[in-house]
C-alpha cells in the first residue's frame, strides 16, 4: 500500500510541475494544485492538452 501511495504522490508531483510550467497555479474551481487529488490534476492537465491541441489544429487549417 505504501508503494502505491508513493506512486500516486510522484504522479501528482509530475502533473503539478507540468501545470505550473503552463502557467496554471490553481484548478478551474480556484483550489490550490497541492490540495486536490490526482484525478482532479489529471483533468486539469487534460484541459491544458486539449487547449494546446486545438490551438495547434487551428494554426494548421
Elements, N to C (H/E): HH
Category by helix and strand content: mainly alpha
Mean pLDDT: 91
Beta-strand residue fraction: under 5%
How would you sum up the major sheet? Answer: none
Task: Note the total helix count.
Answer: 2
Helix content: over 70%
- The count of strands amounts to 0
**Whole-Å distance between the termini?**
48 Å
**Low-pLDDT runs:** none
Principal-axis shape equals elongated
Q: State Rg.
A: 13 Å
Explained architecture:
This protein has 61 residues and is an all-alpha fold. The longest helix is centred in the C-terminal third of the chain and has 23 residues, at 38-60. It starts with a helix and ends with a helix. The protein is elongated. It has helices at 2-21, 38-60.
Output the keywords.
elongated, 61 residues, single chain, 70% helix, mainly alpha, 2 helices
Set down the secondary structure blueprint.
Elements: H1 2-21, H2 38-60
Helix pairs in contact: 1-2
Would you kindly provide a brief summary of this structure?
With 61 residues, the protein is mainly alpha-helical. Helix content is 70%, strand content 0%.
Amino acid at each position: 500500500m505504501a508503494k502505491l501511495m508513493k506512486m500516486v504522490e510522484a504522479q501528482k508531483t509530475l502533473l503539478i510541475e507540468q501545470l505550473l510550467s503552463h502557467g496554471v497555479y490553481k484548478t478551474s474551481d480556484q483550489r490550490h494544485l497541492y490540495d486536490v487529488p490526482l484525478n482532479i490534476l489529471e483533468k486539469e492537465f487534460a484541459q491544458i492538452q486539449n487547449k494546446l491541441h486545438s490551438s495547434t489544429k487551428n494554426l494548421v487549417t
